[in-house]
């Protein structure tokens, strides 16, 4: 069981390390109101690739799923959530291969870099 799943169940989980890093990046953007949009798009070496970026709260759609982490929001469109439900987002500080890590229970295959997947 990861650290993220020990807390409230959410469709997209954040480990404490990922949460800390995302909050740091949010502060660097200079806007504490920004939310994180997570989704998928066609492409990548395994067929689909992960995408995430900060987004203004006024761009959240009525159909989006919103997960709250102590006032910080993760937003995901319903089509992406079909592929991402249960995703655990972690962060790794390694000099080689570091960055965000996606553990997706829906992925039948992943590429070597871990940034794309197939279902």
Automatic annotation (TrEMBL):
Q: Domain Core, which positions?
A: 12-115
Q: What is this protein called?
A: Iron-sulfur cluster assembly accessory protein
> Which GO biological process annotations does it have?
iron-sulfur cluster assembly
Q: Which organism is it from?
A: Waterburya agarophytonicola KI4
Instruction: List, alphabetically, the PANTHER family matched.
Output: IRON-SULFUR ASSEMBLY PROTEIN ISCA, CHLOROPLASTIC
One function term, GO molecular function aspect:
2 iron, 2 sulfur cluster binding
| UniProt similarity note | Belongs to the HesB/IscA family. Ycf83 subfamily.
